[in-house]
Specification:
- It holds the Pfam family YqeY.
- GO terms for molecular function: carbon-nitrogen ligase activity, with glutamine as amido-N-donor.
- By secondary structure, the protein is mostly helical.
- It has two domains: 87 residues, Uncharacterised protein YqeY/AIM41, N-terminal domain (Hypothetical Protein Yqey, Chain: A, domain1), CATH 1.10.1510; 49 residues, Orthogonal Bundle (Arc Repressor Mutant, subunit A).
- It is built from seven helices and no strands.
- The longest helix has 25 residues.
Amino acid sequence: MLKETLKKDEIAAMKAKEKSKVAVLRLINADIKGKEINTRTTLSDEEIVSIIEKNIKQQKETLEYAEKLGDEEKINECNFAIGVLTPYLPAQLSDEEVENMLKEIISTNNYTAKDMGKIMKEIMPKVAGRYERSKINPMVKSLL
């Protein structure tokens, strides 16, 4: 389970005295623990992946802002955090793979432009955690 992997990696980083990596992993583990406490359930790997994705997205937004300000220290910090977290995400799909999936969904069901919601509902579970969500909508529009 992904949760145990994250915890083991945090402990290994502590033993190796990798303070920056420990800080990043500790933050993710705290987010997971907080979510479990709030929902009173054990999170699935998919839910943990969404927490990691959310954290990477926040790091990228901070990175953009830091680049505008020219804050080298923050830029390095964000790049490091993104580098630590990315390997925990499932293998990413290429644009071509997602486009082929969309073409199949559209042709199988004879969807038109007015069926955008149905297409999105069908594709999202298939690409969850493996493709950037913001790219899907424009891709669907271009195929219709």
